[in-house]
Structures are given as C-alpha cells and as structure tokens.
Design a protein that fits this description.
The chain is an alpha/beta fold. It has ten helices and 13 strands. Strands 7, 8, 9, 10, 11, 12 and 13 form a seven-stranded mixed beta sheet that branches. The chain has a four-stranded mixed beta sheet with strand order 2-1-5-6, with no helix packed on it. 43% of the residues are buried.
C-alpha cells in the first residue's frame, strides 16, 4: 500500500494521506497489460479487506492475481514524500512481517505458477526483504530456467531494505540465473563487480562509457541482454534520462529525454515492462531500448506508480513523433 501526503507536502505537514497500491513487478506488469499482453502476479496478501482492496486494484489495471496467495496479517506499507527543487523525494518502508515478506522456500508451487508462461521477472526489492525470500526467488529462477522460461531482474537496489554486502551476496548468486539484467552504472560496480568505465569522457550519456561494462557483465554471468539505465540531474524538478542495451550481436543507446517529473516513482519499472515487451518479440537492440526509454519518460508524467500509457503513444514518442499537441 502506497501512502503519501497531498502534492509536495512533507510528512510532518500531512493531515491526510492518499492511498494507492503498488509493487515494482506489478508496475512493470501494468505496462505489459497496457501494451496488450497478459501479466500474472506471484505474491501474498492478507485475507482481510486491505488485501482484497490491493488485489482489486491490480485487477483493475489488467493484472491476473489468481496466483497470489492469501495469508498473513499485514500488507506491506510504502510512505512516499514527493520532492521539489533541491529537496529530494523520500521513501519510508514498513514491510517487515508483511504477508509477502514472510514467504519461505516451498510456499510457491513454481511448476503450476510457471505453466504456459513466457517470462519470469523480479526486482531486487523481493530478495531484499528476508533471507527466506531470497531463497524463494532463487528457487523461482531455477524453476523458470528448467522450464525454458527467460528470467529478468531489475537490480533496483534500495539501501533502506538491505546493505550493500547483503545485496552483493544474494545478487552474485542470482546473476548466473538471469537472461536479462537491468542495472545502473553504480549498482553494476558495487554489487556485481563490473569494471568502472575507463573511457575518458565524463558524459554520462556517451555509449562508449557502457559498452565495456555491459560486455563484462554478459561474459561473467551469461545474460543474453544487459540494460544500463542512466539518469542525470541536480534537482527533483528536472532530470535527463536514457538507457544502453547490449545484446549478443548488437547494442544501442536510446535518445536522451529531459523530464520534469510529476511522479518519477515507477519510471524504472515502466522501462522494464516495455523492454520485456520488445525482447519477447525479438526486437533489435535499437528498437527495444527506444521503446523502453520512451515508456520511462512517459511514466514521469503520470501520478502514482502505474504507467497508463498505451503502446501507440509510447511508440510515437520512441519514433520522435510527439509534438505535445492536444489529440482531438
């Protein structure tokens, strides 16, 4: 459950909190649903009405929740304070002892869950919640690979959930199980032992900066695709974003977008959902990364964690056809 003060109020000012429901993997799934695919959730929520409200919210935006377990007493909480100017956004997690955080190896019937599925995706916030969840995530990856299902991970490191040493230990076990790895430069170096760029350029959007890093990750861990997301900016009000994608026989850097966010939370998940869409269809690197970067950009202009942007408008932006005019 996402709880946040109205507008850009601070927590200490708030007399009320707006309510929503979220999850990094669900955010990516909503993009796939919007694009016409059928995403499924694997999770756990309590039997009580807050759990029901969460599932109703997910269903509303096209997510199949038949594989979600009903158990436990708590729904995890996420408190969000939107930043402005030089004041950064702030997130406070309250996920300990939630229904999801209490899942253990063996709780998910992976052969049944993965039957007739085409992709398995998770983010680093799942194994971060407990050692048991880390083992369950590894169990799911192994089951997916045994079934010939591609596995993707957005590292999505959150220092409020686990330490760098704990994240490294788990992610180094997970990395060899991945077909698609999504990471940023800092996370790749700190958590996955990727080499720092030796390129002389200081431009964070120079593709030469990321080619050796992506090649090293692909050689060391074996994923068929490595995506490196890039963000630059000194204030909460304006950022520049792009991404680099490395495949076996090609690589590409997306165009650069300057964004003035309404809500940037979930933008990386929108990138992931669109990237999965392209890779499922074996798109070349340039087309896949442009679609994903466009989805990332558009999400910055949608409130809440879910992106509600169609495939057509995302493709238009990816092709550079957006002109900001009213469509009527």
């Amino acid at each position: 459950m996402r709880l946040e003060p109205p507008g850009v109020d601070r927590f200490v000012q708030a007399h009320s909190l707006n309510v929503g429901f979220t999850g990094a993997e669900a955010n990516a799934g909503v993009v796939l649903a919007e694009f016409g695919d059928q995403p499924y959730l694997v999770s756990a929520v309590p039997e009580h009405d807050l759990g029901k409200a969460c599932l109703d919210h997910m269903r509303r935006y096209g997510l199949d929740v038949q594989q979600v377990l009903r158990r436990g007493n708590r729904l995890g909480l996420l408190f969000v304070e939107s930043g402005a100017g030089y004041r950064a956004s702030q997130v406070i997690y309250d996920r300990a002892r939630s229904a999801f955080a209490e899942l253990k190896p063996g709780d998910v019937p992976w052969p049944d869950v993965l039957a007739n599925k085409h992709w398995f995706h998770f983010t680093g916030t799942a194994p971060a919640l407990s050692p048991d969840l880390a083992e369950l995530t590894i169990e799911g990856c192994q089951a997916a690979r045994a079934a010939g299902i591609p596995v993707s991970c957005d590292v999505n490191y959150r220092s409020a959930l686990w330490s760098i040493p704990a994240a490294r230990e788990t992610l180094l076990r997970l990395a060899p199980l991945l077909d698609v790895l999504i990471v940023n430069e800092e996370q790749a170096v700190q958590l996955l032992d990727a080499p720092r760029s030796t390129n002389d350029t200081r431009d964070p959007f120079d593709p030469k900066r990321y080619a050796p890093m992506a090649a090293s990750l692909r050689e060391r861990y074996g994923p068929r695709a490595v995506a490196i997301t890039v963000r630059s900016g000194q204030t909460a009000d304006e950022n520049r974003i792009a991404a680099y994608l490395s495949l076996a026989n090609s690589s590409a850097m997306s165009r650069i977008y300057t964004v003035r966010p309404i809500d940037r939370i979930g933008a990386g998940d929108a990138f992931t959902g669109a990237l999965i869409y392209g890779l499922l269809r074996n798109w070349p690197a340039d087309q896949a990364v442009e679609l994903a970067a466009a989805a990332n950009c558009l999400k910055h202009y949608v409130r809440g964690d879910f992106s509600h942007c169609s495939l057509n408008e995302t493709l238009q932006l990816a092709r550079g056809e957006s002109d900001g005019r009213i469509r009527r």
